[in-house]
Amino acid sequence: MAKLLLTSSRLMKRRRAFIKKVGLALSALTAAPALKGDGYLSSVDPRLRNSVMDVLQYVSIKDVEIIKLRFPQKTPLTWNAIKSSGGGYPSSTFLKITTNEGITGWSGVKGVPSTTIGFAKKIKGLNLLNTEQVWHHMFFHNRKPVAKGQEIHAIGSVDLCVWDIVGKALGLPVHKVLGSFREKIPVYAAGGYYAKGKTNSDLVKEMESYVKEGYRVVKMKVGFLDAKEDAKRVRDVVDALGNDARVMIDANNGYATAYEAIRFGKMVEDLDLYWFEEPVAPDDWRGNAEVRDELNIPIVAGENEYTRWGARDLVENHSCDIINIDTIKGGGLTEMRKIAALCSAFHIEIAPHGYAHMNVHALASIPNAKILETYPAKARDFNPTFEPFPLKDGMIDAPTTIGLGMDPDPTLVKKYRV
Hints:
The protein is an alpha/beta fold and 418 residues long.
């Protein structure tokens, strides 16, 4: 804990000195006119030129740490088509990287924490501002270049942490560093799980509460019940919300065959659903394509795929209309941008799955991004790690916080750290 909350005068002085250098550098660059030949640096005061180059040249890893928080209020037991969730104490796991300049980067962790630590250590000594080189080193260095597995989870977490550091080094939100495309971002509320004793009326009330919160798109689970029962659940929600919001359905790969997913889809095809997510098994590209061909509902897939090569397989097999690769599983923001570029060549949109506070930077900077998955404000009753986004008419503003905005509240860390 003492290490986490380190506030020694030496570290603070070093950090202040670095921030001062950043300020001088950015001021110098901002004030300099765009010139031919040597460009910006040729017009910067020579006394500041070294500070500019220092700031923009080298930031490296000093220390790596995993921090896990666990909260005391049990969540309700719920389930989707394939597995249960909740019923225990919620937690959040973070990767924390401290740099030679005193900048601290944060990101979320999925998978094995020790594997994440291992991949962060692989890039010690590299300049974190060289994000492409850093990603390439993690993916190809000292391991077979497979495109799937826990290694990709680790690479994704480290890559996102690196981008947080880059944003903080430059004093900008990450989407500004990447190149912003939009300032307003459409979002949806992920919910509608099955639960013991939960009636259709209860489901409708849940969805209506999200609309009152400001959502204009809501998502509910399907695939666990008999097709007719699930179709009735969907129809009841759509009828209740009317023109106030559109409805997504998510089967979580729950249908064993394409024909089962098609049979169910035909029962709700007339409801103008926003999309039908993961109807069949993740590796059943042909089945996804069959469902897509037979239904007049946009098909979403990719949450369980990895990297640009996984996205390529989905695209080449005509498996979906929208790709929802998880930002961490996908390999981080560096790889997500490649996935988005690949999809754009085929006029396919992306809607990343996972941590909204990291994904929001992808949505803000990628032209063919569609909508951001978020959890409603009531989720903070159980896990207060992240503040909900201010929401109006189904939209949020692109972040203004420097970096990713993943830094946990120090008081929460102090109180709930495992």
